[in-house]
Amino acid sequence: MLKRASIAAATALAMATPAFAQTFSPAGSSFTMSGYLSASDVETVNCATTLYGVVSADGTSATITGGSFAPGSGPTSGKCGVIFHPNDFPWTLQPGSASTVNLLGIGMGYFLGHCSGSIFGASWTNGPPGVGAATITPVMISGAYGGCLVHGALATSPSLTITPP
């Protein structure tokens, strides 16, 4: 009877333990993400983007503490940083797998409203020797007029790496 209880307890513990535990390296480091984010709601804006963050001490996530938008490319990019800006900080960046990340709790404000939500499964390229970078293929997050279609590419400096378990 005791042996069956021990096996059942071990099985329950194994099922409760996550099957993956990728981490960011270097843990505990500050970093900058820069590149561009584009969002489409009533119109499309392409913004040069700078985000600031710190990797947790155990590397399981990173906190984006702040950031800014500046004019990027296209006829409406002049709205970036003036009318259209990132908000709702902090955001959370988590490894999803060895080649994907999740960006949770993002927010973008503009004169007509606000878009917020999470992006799951953004493509991730490890660095070094390259640069740790996220590529966000078009994804819809909730917004004032039915949602915002967001996409972009952001590279980290210093370079971050997702380390497998």
TrEMBL record:
Keywords assigned by UniProt?
Signal
The domain of life for this entry's organism is Bacteria
Q: Write the signal peptide boundaries.
A: 1-21
Give the protein's recorded name: Protein activator of alkane oxidation PraB
The species this protein was found in: Caulobacter radicis
